[in-house]
């Protein structure tokens, strides 16, 4: 019994030691279980200072209020809000197209030079991701020249880390601001080829692990997406260690420097039979006018059924002319009007002559300025990290519904792993299952939605003024039901019919609607009646177009 008690005591002591170690390795953690007021400071800068109390401005005239909202209304409101579907709270970006700036000062600065440092936080794009950033800035001490209540995009940071997606930008930023000891300038060094941002509505956890061997690892949801070395020119742009030499800014290219690798052969002569004036195309002398061509028939004729409008004023509107329609005689003939031979490529065409290219005997290559020692060059064994004194979020986002949670700074990646397992993973699994159910429901709703489209199309076919084309419309709908992939084409075809009929009703004309049926995939039954074939050939031969409305033509004055 005594031995068992001793084992329990040792186990308890080990557990306590692990807990204390975890507490010692956790430098900063905010779960946002409590409201953020008092811990986080919203910037007082005009761009980020939202007008939240209407009592302050209710007395303003409407026009002046609108002006102020237009000028100062770019600032968004931070909210302490639950993550959708959870009882877990976070820091919420609540409005679209707004600027946000908020900062939390650490109790004491954190050195990045001692051992490992882990930066981790959760973020969720609850309304999806179209155009928004959700990155954090890890700020230098205020001696660098900034104040918490004046935090803005110019405030000096040591590291910027997190997702950003808008337009062509889609990456998880990792930017180190590093001081050049020679020039004294702070330079932004961007991680090359960073991972892309998950584009769903789930909670994701982003982790950056800075190792003492100059390695940095980027994890998304606990999975390593990128490994880099701070001192490698292949991993950061620009590299932390500058080039030893640079192009001499004062060096000039000599006037006689020839960069042309090839030149026209000065001894070449244009051949005597080279005709530069020969046309590219000539008439096809072998072409023969098709039999049945109607030379004396115009392609268009006056609409015999058109009548002059009662309100037509010849003095005001000019001489009335009937609208034109396609000549019905031309529909059965190979063509109407003056026949002309078609054009063909001219076999004698050679174009403008130019001398062939030869190697340039004076070629010296592409000129480059000579290299000189780089005055800003320095050698480095380890990055000269600036300490972190605060965590800030400064973004200008087109996206609302961005939720931040469980912001962590730790000195041990096991601590970050523990938080992922206990705070992030349970939420993520719930959201993933819910998303899966919604996707399955959307798929089934999509099928029922297609059927609703067909129901509407059947009702369209029953519209009285479309009765002349009802069979044609029904035929299109039936084909779309058999092959849903042509539904869009069917809808377009029916719209063409409707618009054509409306034009006829409004403006007259006898032109039949020219609707090309959507192509139907081949089936095992590949036969069709001669009537169907003839109908398809007729449709292919029909020219596109609709009856033109009556045109008012004025006399020349």
Poorly predicted parts:
7-21, 51-73, 510-557
- Percentage of residues in DSSP E strands: 15-25%
The helicity comes to 10-25%
Specify the overall morphology. flat
The tally of helices reads: 8
Mean pLDDT: 82
- CATH topology assignment of the domain at 24-247 and 381-433: Jelly Rolls
Largest sheet: 9 strands, antiparallel
Classify the secondary structure makeup into a structural class. alpha+beta
Would you count the extended β strands for me? Answer: 25
Straight-line distance between termini:
123 Å
Which class of the domain at 24-247 and 381-433 in CATH terms?
Mainly Beta
Rg of Cα set: 38 Å
CATH architecture of the domain at 24-247 and 381-433: Sandwich
Helices and strands in order:
Blueprint: H1 2-25, E1 26-30, E2 41-42, H2 62-72, E3 78-82, E4 89-93, E5 98-110, E6 117-125, E7 132-133, E8 136-139, E9 157-166, E10 169-179, E11 186-191, E12 203-210, E13 215-220, E14 223-229, E15 236-237, E16 245-247, E17 262-264, E18 281-283, E19 300-302, H3 314-317, E20 324-326, H4 328-332, E21 343-345, E22 357-359, E23 371-373, E24 388-397, E25 402-410, H5 413-461, H6 470-482, H7 487-507, H8 530-541
Antiparallel strand pairs: 1-25, 2-5, 3-4, 4-25, 5-24, 6-12, 6-25, 7-9, 8-9, 8-24, 9-10, 10-11, 11-15, 12-13, 13-14, 16-23, 17-22, 18-21, 19-20
Helix pairs in contact: 5-6, 6-7
Transmembrane segments: 486-507
Biased composition (Acidic residues): 273-286, 293-304, 311-320, 534-543
GO molecular function: calcium ion binding; carbohydrate binding; unfolded protein binding
């Amino acid at each position: 019994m005594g031995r068992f008690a001793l084992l329990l005591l040792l186990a308890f002591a080990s557990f306590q030691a692990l807990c204390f170690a975890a507490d010692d390795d956790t430098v900063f953690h905010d779960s946002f279980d409590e409201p953020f007021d008092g811990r986080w400071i919203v910037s007082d800068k005009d761009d980020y200072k939202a007008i939240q109390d209407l009592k302050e401005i209710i007395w303003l005239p409407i026009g002046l209020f609108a002006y102020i909202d237009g000028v100062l209304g770019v600032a968004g409101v931070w909210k302490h809000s639950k993550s959708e579907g959870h009882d877990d709270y976070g820091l919420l970006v609540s409005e679209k197209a707004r600027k946000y700036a908020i900062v939390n000062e650490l109790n004491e600065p954190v050195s990045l030079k001692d051992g490992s440092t882990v930066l981790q936080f959760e973020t969720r794009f609850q309304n999806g991701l179209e155009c928004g950033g959700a990155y954090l800035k890890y700020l230098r001490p205020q001696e660098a020249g900034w104040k918490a209540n004046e935090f803005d995009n110019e405030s000096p940071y040591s590291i910027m880390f997190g997702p950003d997606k808008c337009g062509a930008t889609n990456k998880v930023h990792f930017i180190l601001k590093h001081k050049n000891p020679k020039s004294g300038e702070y330079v932004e060094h961007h991680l090359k080829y960073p991972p892309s941002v998950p584009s769903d509505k789930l909670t994701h956890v982003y982790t950056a692990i800075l190792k003492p061997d100059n390695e940095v690892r980027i994890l998304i949801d606990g999975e390593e997406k990128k490994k880099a070395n701070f001192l490698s020119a292949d991993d950061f742009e620009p590299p932390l260690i500058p080039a030893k030499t640079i192009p001499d800014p004062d060096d000039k290219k000599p006037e006689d420097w020839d960069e042309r690798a090839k030149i026209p052969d000065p001894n070449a002569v244009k051949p005597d039979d080279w005709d530069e004036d020969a046309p590219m195309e000539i008439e096809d002398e072998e072409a023969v006018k098709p039999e049945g061509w109607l030379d004396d028939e115009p392609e268009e004729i006056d609409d015999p059924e058109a009548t002059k409008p009662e309100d037509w004023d010849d003095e005001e509107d000019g001489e009335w002319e009937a609208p034109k329609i396609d000549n019905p005689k031309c529909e059965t003939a190979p063509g109407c009007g003056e026949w002309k031979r078609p054009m063909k490529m001219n076999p004698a065409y050679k174009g403008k002559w130019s001398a062939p290219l030869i190697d340039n005997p004076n070629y010296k290559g592409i000129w480059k300025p000579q290299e000189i020692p780089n005055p800003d060059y320095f050698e480095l064994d380890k990055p000269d990290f600036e300490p972190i004194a605060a965590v800030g979020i400064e973004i200008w986002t087109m996206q609302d519904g961005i939720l931040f949670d469980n912001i962590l700074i730790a000195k041990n990646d096991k601590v970050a792993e523990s938080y992922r397992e206990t705070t992030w993973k349970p939420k993520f699994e719930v959201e993933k299952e819910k998303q899966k159910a919604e996707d399955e429901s959307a798929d089934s709703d999509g099928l029922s939605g297609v059927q609703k489209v067909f129901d509407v199309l059947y009702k369209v076919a029953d519209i009285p003024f479309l009765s002349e084309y009802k069979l044609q419309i029904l035929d299109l709908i039936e084909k779309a039901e058999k092959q849903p992939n042509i539904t869009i084409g069917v809808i377009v075809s029916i719209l063409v019919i409707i618009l054509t009929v409306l034009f006829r009703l409004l403006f007259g004309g006898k032109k039949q609607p020219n609707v090309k049926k959507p192509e139907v995939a081949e089936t095992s039954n590949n036969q069709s009646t001669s009537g169907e074939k003839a109908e398809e050939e007729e449709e292919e031969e029909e020219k596109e177009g609709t009856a033109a409305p009556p045109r008012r033509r004025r006399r020349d004055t």
